[in-house]
Amino acid sequence: MTSADLTSHATNRRNVVAGAGAIAAGGLLASRFTGTASAQDATPAGEATPMVSGGVPLDPQMQQIVDTLVSYEAPPIESVSPQIARNLPSATTATIEVLSAQGEPAFEEIGDISHILIPGPAGDIVARVYAPVGAGDEPLPVAVYYHGGGFVIANLDTYDPSCRAIANAAGCLVVSVAYRQAPEAPYPAAVDDSYAALQYVIENAGLINGDPERVAVVGESAGGNLAAVVSLLARDLGGVLPVHQVLVYPVATFAPEGEQTESIEQFVDAVPLNSAMLEWFGSYYLPDPSIATSDPYVSPAIADLTGLPPATVILAEIDPLFSQGEIFAQQLTDAGVETTVTTYEGVTHEFFGTGAVVDKAAEAVEEAATALRSAFGTSA
Q1: Catalytic residue among 71, 221, 299, 323
Q2: Using one digit for the tens of pLDDT, what is the confidence trace for 158-171?
Q3: pTM tops 0.70
């Protein structure tokens, strides 16, 4: 990427197509890796055999989490029903176990947690509100947060570590939205709920001691898609735009083509997200596959991106979504949107919430927090 507004830690990104070393999320045998699965016995990461995914070596700290996740021997997500998949272990499960083995607390301390009900198009939407440590009486800026899970699995608890970290690092309230999920509620249910939640928070921020003039959006994976889409909707429907959008390895398109497919091919068997899972998620989320190439609120990569809020795009090198995220960041820049993109090397999809174990995740959270504080006009 050549724009002066773009930065990257991956200046020497490898263009290696995946060969051996196949793993499905949460679940195939460790022997399918180039490496071993033994981190849950608290073996120092530096003593483990380095894993390789798609020709790229894993960061040793990331490897501890991947090792632990693989050790659970759960069935591959793409081989089971959504109802079963929702009960399989996640990267959060593995992170908590690694922390326990290290004698560290499972959760980052937070100032306060509460819950609100937001009126939605199909009934009330539950949202969890995180206040940072040391929050006083003054109204705080707000980050409306959308969790990942491919629009099908995961919940507020799965992404609780990310919300705690953002609240403390950015000194803001985080409102985590429990939008409806497929297949029970396919597209556009998640989009409708997410947009309703954003506009409600902006209009009623005072009810949670938030500042309605300083509301941003943050999303991971499927949530990154939703954060981008609600920004598009706010522009198109005449709503109030967020002041910033933090997009962490976002789903930019459900119909990747050309260069967008490079990382899908390279990291076909990565953990915790593999290429088959992308198709599995899409099969449940999209009521009609053809809308992937025609509806910009499904695939924001095909949208007119002009007039959107500044964006911070955070990518993982070992991720089938890497290529489309990198291209989407360039599309935002080309549309005149102030955009910064950073790729963190040697880490996988879902790394962002692992900052208690993975230093690069803590750096990514700090990058997001710095962007949010700048947008909010607050200091560290």
Answers
A1: 221
A2: 999 999 999 999 99
A3: yes
